[in-house]
Structures are given as structure tokens and as C-alpha cells.
Amino acid sequence: MDVALSPNGRRLMRVFFALVILFLYAPIAILLVFSFNSSPVPVFPLSGFTLGWYHDFLTNADIRGALETSAIIAAVSSVGAVVLGILAAIGLTRRRFRGQLGVTALLLSPLVIPLLVLGVSMALLFHELGMQRSMYTVMIGHIVISVPYTILVIRPRLGQIDASLGEAAYDLGAGPLTTFRTVTLPLILPAVVSAFMIAFTISFDEFPVASFLVGPRQTFPVYLYAALRFPSQLPQVIAVAVVVLLVSLAVIVAAELWRRRAEARLEAA
User: Fold this and answer.
1) pLDDT at 268
2) Are 42 and 238 in contact, with CB atoms under 8 Å apart?
3) How far apart are the first and last CA of the chain?
4) What pLDDT does 35 receive?
5) In whole angstroms, what is the distance from residue 109 CA to residue 147 CA?
6) CA nearest 30: which of 19, 43, 47?
7) Where are the beta strands (DSSP E) in the chain?
8) Count of other CB atoms within 10 angstroms of residue 125
9) Is 226 helix (H, G, I), strand (E, B) or coil?
10) Distance from C-alpha of 23 to C-alpha of 127, rounded to nearest angstrom
11) 151-195 residue pLDDT tens
12) What is the CATH number of domain 62-268?
């Protein structure tokens, strides 16, 4: 039931919305401004305009190495999380079995377990298994925390697909893999792309679990946290943070536009 607002109520809602937007995006705007400040100390008034901090971080091998490590871990762990998320979503959507509620709760449990607890527990597990901390241990940890998000994104899309489509493919002689590749996957592809982007973002930005599992090659959040203890590196950190934010926004917008077009084509078909 819609509730009509008075003119004063609408103005109040607009003001509230503007304040929320300001609260969310003002820190990003301030970060962008300070990235061009010639002073190494981020305070007002600004000392002058410079692009030197961007040049410094582009020539900083440690920062570039941390970004590369995070990108590799995020890409691999996102693929793993999406694959497991698809399998879990199919099992939970297409089948009814005893204990399904418990299995669902178990798969989604990383959403409610504190990341510090997960990081400590996985670090102890890998130690008992004799696995050295490395990029691979971080990948495994990020897959664990990303799978619930992929399930929550892919499962509703699977639920919207008519099961008779798969049965028709079986009747025509297609096997399970062929049916999935030719029927199910194209229909859930927008959700798969969204799940991948969410998992990639979570992995790239994740700190608590990575801090316990990282090896000699630091991820970007771990490097960033360590660099903040040194004031001389703060301007470079601000500059690289701005670049990461802008690239992330561009990728998210592009992926969302592609997803909407893909869903429109599927609905038209």
C-alpha cells in the first residue's frame, strides 16, 4: 500500500537522501582531492597541484607487485567460487533431500562467522596440514568466504528457469553436461557474471583472512595496512586508492550494463 507524502515530507526525504549520498561519497571526493595535493600531509588548505604521487606509485615495484598479487588471487578465487556456487545452487534448487536446510545453513555460514575467526581457524588448519602460507592458501580462504555470495546470486536465477527446458533437452538426447552448457548456462549467465564480480571485489578488498594466510607476496590490502604506518608513503597510498576506486567503478558499471542487456535479450527470446 502506497503512502502519499505531504510536500514537507517529500522535501524531508530529499534532504535525507542528499545527506546519505554526501556521507557515502564525500570521503571519496576528499581522497581524490588530496591525491593531487603537492604536500605530503593531507590537510587543508591545499599546497598546490601535482601528479607526482601517481608517478611515484606507478614506479613503485612493491605497490605494483601487491596489486598484481591481489588481482591474480581475486581472479582465481572468483572462478573457483563461481564454479562451486553454480554446483551448490543447482543441487539446492533442482533437488529436494533430507537435511537440505542444514546443508544450506552450512554453505552460507561464512556470512555470519567473523572473518578474524575464519582467518585464525584456516591458518591453524593449514599449519596442521603442513601447508606453507602462500597465494594458494589465500585463494582457498577467499573461495570459502565468496561461495555464499555466489550461491545467493545464482540460486534465485536458477529458480526462475523452467525445469521443463532441461527435461526437453534430455528427451532430445542431450547429456547433463551438454544440457548445462547449451541450456542452463546461457540462461544464468547474467547472474554468473554478477556473482563473479561480487566475488572478485570481495577477494581484492579482503584483509582479515588474508592477513593470516598471506605468504611472502603480500596482497594489496595487507600492503596498504602496513604502508599506513609510514607517513612518507601516505600520498602514494592515496593515489593508488583513487586509481583502484575509479577502475572498480568503471568495471562495475560496465558489468551492470552488460548484465541488463543480456537479461533483456533473454527476456526477448
Assistant:
1) 63
2) yes
3) 33
4) 78
5) 10
6) 43
7) none
8) 13
9) helix
10) 43
11) 998 888 887 776 666 666 665 666 667 777 777 777 788 888 888
12) 1.10.3720.10
